[in-house]
């Protein structure tokens, strides 16, 4: 008997349940009236996933002893794993009836209802799960697993403040994979990107092959326009499982942002075949919007909202769909904008959506109020001061670029850099130029800032003076994928490349530089009314935005005084005298005039910037002076 018990204990500790089963069966035969022998048999059958025999053994154990809690837990597990949820619920609750403060019983019920919620998406199950974890938390406030479960539930319930507080209390105390996965996802959702990076880095040190962590990092890198990190982590994730819908979605998103339309669509479809996820429909809508398939875009955004009423798809939907007051979608947006449980960055999107809906309404003051609120909410999530931009700009201005050895390389095609403030007309200029048969429009490429960063242009300026320009040239071209070979030029219309103009001139001596300038107030208002992806921290406070424009203007004045190879054009001039300025611009680029450049609005190329719709219209002048009413409003608002 003692030898048999020792053998059973040894095999239990080693989890060798297939070897354990015959020994336990003999133990039952020898101890037919012992409840624990039947409990062990049921326990073993559960581990071998033979739930029918487990239930038979455990019910027999209960007949012999109705007070042993673990028997209720095990038979509850048997029915739970068999998806007989009503019986599982009964036995879990029976256990709790025996001891209302038992931690394991409370946890099992909390996890049981969480499982049901994940399977059936029934809110009542989530509420019940939260109830039992809350009871457990009140009784055992230092139990890490209870805190983690409660924090994760609050995250699902969009009670982000409560969730953040609980997750934060677990830092340095809980090193589990669910902690890192759920906490990093929460931080990204509420706009705490810096903290999310830190948690993901720490988590991946401990769990380097965790696909959920890699997927979270990929999503965060994409949101920050860090395409190098995004590609690296997406490919790591797909090596672990090439059918992960999240990884496939992220790969499609990366290709989309890199203007590789065919690949983007391919990966979005692959993701949807595995999982009809609202995030994939959101990105598919962005793809259709960029390719001027507006009905498909609307349907995709609406599908995303149907699957998730808290989807970020409301904002892009309002860019492609005309909505009227009291429309159910408008009412839903208003409701979400007033929900105190939702984070500021999400509510900001709702107010930007309301601005899109009401901006052409007669009640202009109400529309402006929505816009100011949208920006103020988004600004609360951003750590920024104008002094940061001043420091960067003046550092760039004060470098002695004459010490740099100019690049002798001349890879093709050559580049037309279109620079200026965002929303200054750079998309219009690119649309015009890319309508020429010898020019391919490539959009807002990250190649230059990525190449500069790779070569440590700030910290090793002097040290690498002999090689840095050639390295920047090579690295820039190495990042070009699938670009046409039969063209003379490609365009790079990343507006803020104006910061690095001396590097452009010296590293790409055969490039062309076109600087587009727009009226300060019109330009700033056009930025202020948009929610941008990526890093434009100066864009969401009117005063800071004006200050940044002044910095840009000061820097461009200095560049123009120091360099002559810049073609400067005023946005207002080109919209008033289109053909004259197109011909001058083409001449500057050593291109013959083509009629297609005048009919730029017929060009169906992909446009993923905020100007996706404007560049497909004939030239118009209504954007001139468009800021006048808002400036009056914001000035009176500031005087309140």
Q: What do these coordinates show?
A:
- 63% of the residues lie in helices and 4% in strands.
- By secondary structure, it is mainly alpha-helical.
- Strands 2-3-1-4-5 form a five-stranded parallel sheet.
- The mean pLDDT is 92.
Quick rundown:
With 640 residues, the chain is mainly alpha-helical. It has a domain at 387-638: Rossmann fold.
User: By helix and strand content, what is the structural category?
Assistant: mainly alpha
Strand runs, count: 5
Q: What is the CATH superfamily classification of the domain at 387-638?
A: P-loop containing nucleotide triphosphate hydrolases
DSSP strand content: under 5%
Question: What is Rg?
Answer: 31 Å
Number of helices: 33
CATH architecture of the domain at 387-638: 3-Layer(aba) Sandwich
Strand order of the largest sheet: 2-3-1-4-5
CATH topology of the domain at 387-638: Rossmann fold
- Helix content bin: 55-70%
Shape descriptor: elongated
From the N-terminal CA to the C-terminal CA, the straight-line distance is 88 Å
Q: Name the average pLDDT.
A: 92
CATH hierarchy, class of the domain at 387-638: Alpha Beta
Major sheet characteristics: 5 strands, parallel
Q: Which segments are poorly predicted (pLDDT under 50) over 5 or more consecutive residues? A: none
């Amino acid at each position: 008997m003692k030898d048999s018990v020792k053998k059973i204990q040894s095999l239990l500790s080693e989890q060798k349940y297939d070897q354990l089963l015959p020994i336990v069966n003999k133990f039952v035969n020898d101890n037919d009236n012992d409840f624990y022998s039947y409990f062990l048999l049921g326990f073993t059958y559960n581990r071998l996933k033979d739930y029918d025999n487990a239930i038979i053994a455990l019910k027999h154990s209960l007949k012999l002893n109705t007070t042993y809690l673990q028997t209720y837990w095990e038979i509850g597990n048997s029915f739970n794993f068999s998806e007989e949820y009503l019986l599982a619920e009964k036995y879990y609750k029976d256990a709790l009836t025996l001891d209302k403060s038992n931690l394991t019983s409370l946890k099992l019920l909390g996890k049981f209802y969480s499982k049901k919620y994940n399977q059936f998406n029934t809110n009542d199950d989530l509420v019940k799960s939260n109830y039992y974890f809350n009871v457990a938390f009140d009784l055992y406030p230092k139990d890490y697993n209870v805190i983690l479960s409660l924090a994760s539930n609050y995250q699902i319930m969009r009670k982000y403040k409560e969730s953040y507080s609980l997750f934060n209390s677990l830092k340095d105390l809980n090193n589990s994979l669910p902690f890192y996965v759920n906490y990093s996802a929460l931080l990204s959702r509420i706009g705490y990107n810096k903290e999310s990076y830190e948690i993901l880095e720490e988590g991946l040190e401990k769990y380097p092959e965790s696909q959920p962590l890699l997927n979270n990092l990929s999503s965060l890198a994409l949101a920050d326009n860090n395409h190098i990190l995004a590609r690296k982590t997406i490919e790591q994730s797909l090596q672990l499982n090439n059918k992960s819908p999240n990884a496939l979605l992220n790969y499609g998103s990366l290709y989309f942002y890199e203007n590789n339309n065919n690949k983007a669509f391919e990966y979005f479809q692959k993701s949807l075949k595995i999982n009809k996820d609202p995030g994939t429909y959101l990105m598919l809508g962005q793809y259709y919007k960029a390719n001027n398939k507006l009905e498909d875009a609307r349907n995709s955004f609406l599908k995303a909202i149907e699957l998730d009423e808290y989807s970020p798809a409301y904002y892009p939907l309002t860019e492609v769909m005309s909505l009227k007051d009291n429309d159910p979608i408008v009412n839903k947006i208003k409701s979400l904008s007033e929900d105190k449980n939702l984070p500021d960055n999400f509510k900001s999107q709702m107010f930007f959506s309301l601005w899109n809906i009401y901006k052409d309404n007669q009640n202009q003051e109400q529309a402006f109020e929505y816009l100011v609120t949208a920006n103020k909410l988004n600004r609360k999530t951003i750590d920024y001061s104008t002094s940061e931009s001043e420091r960067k700009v003046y550092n760039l201005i004060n470098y002695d670029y004459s010490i740099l050895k100019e690049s002798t390389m001349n890879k093709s095609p050559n580049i037309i850099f279109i620079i200026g403030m965002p929303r200054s007309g750079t998309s219009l200029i690119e649309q015009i130029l890319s309508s020429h048969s010898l020019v391919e429009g490539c959009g807002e490429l990250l190649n230059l800032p990525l190449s500069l960063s790779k070569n440590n242009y700030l910290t090793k300026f002097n040290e690498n003076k002999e090689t840095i320009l050639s390295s920047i040239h090579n690295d820039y071209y190495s990042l070009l994928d699938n670009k046409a070979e039969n063209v003379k030029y490609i365009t790079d219309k990343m507006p803020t490349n104006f910061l690095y103009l001396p590097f452009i001139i010296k590293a790409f001596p055969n490039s062309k530089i076109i600087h587009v300038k727009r009226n300060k107030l019109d330009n700033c208002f056009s930025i202020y009314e948009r929610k941008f992806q990526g890093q434009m921290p100066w864009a969401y406070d009117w005063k800071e935005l004006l200050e940044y424009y002044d910095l840009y203007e000061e820097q461009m004045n200095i560049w123009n005084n120091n360099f002559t190879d810049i073609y400067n054009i005023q946005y207002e001039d080109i919209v008033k005298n289109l053909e004259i300025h197109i011909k001058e611009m083409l001449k500057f680029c050593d291109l013959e005039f083509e009629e297609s450049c005048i009919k730029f609005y017929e060009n169906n190329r992909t446009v993923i910037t905020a100007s996706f719709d404007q560049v497909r219209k004939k030239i118009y002048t209504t954007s001139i002076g468009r800021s006048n009413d808002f400036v009056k409003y914001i000035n009176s608002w500031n005087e309140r």
